[in-house]
Amino acid sequence: MPTQDSPSDCWGQRIQDAIATNSKIRDGLHDAEAIPLVEWGNTYAAHLGTRLAAPDTPPPDQEQVDNAAYALARLLTRINWLVSYRRKKDAAWLSRTFQTVNDLSRELLGDDAPMFSDEEIAAWIAAHETHADAELIQGLIARLAPSAPEFAAGPGAEDTPPPGTPASPELPDMTDTFDQSGPTDSPSRPGDTLL
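-> structure tokens emitted (195 positions)
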């Protein structure tokens, strides 16, 4: 790295490099879906680099940077899975995957992280068939974008949510009716084969 790079640029670049080499983030997506997801992931990585280099926190060690990269790659992969597997998996699997997305968002950004409510999850599951994959990707990343200036010009900057954004809490909460089990999809440590 050039010496003029700030610490936040260095950490952000390391996280971007880790997600750039992870093909699972893009598996099953066409360019119209994959490109916005990867670009959003790069912006998110830069944001994480800034958070890791905050002046009021001790400098991160390599493990902290690796954990952030791993969690972001898992978040991006789960967003992909929600769209790619939405017609192949049952509502219970989709609901669990949304819960994993929420957990990863909280792991990356803390208690103020954007997360999906049970009502939003139920609305998304009920309405996803009426939307194209690209619309759903845009809606998911807009909803999960951190409150930060670098995300202001991208998805989520509009006053109204983009198509596919779960935003219909008036739909009945369907989480109590999920009775089918889906496969386990969340390994616990870096190096496991599933992301």
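The longest helix spans residues 62-84.
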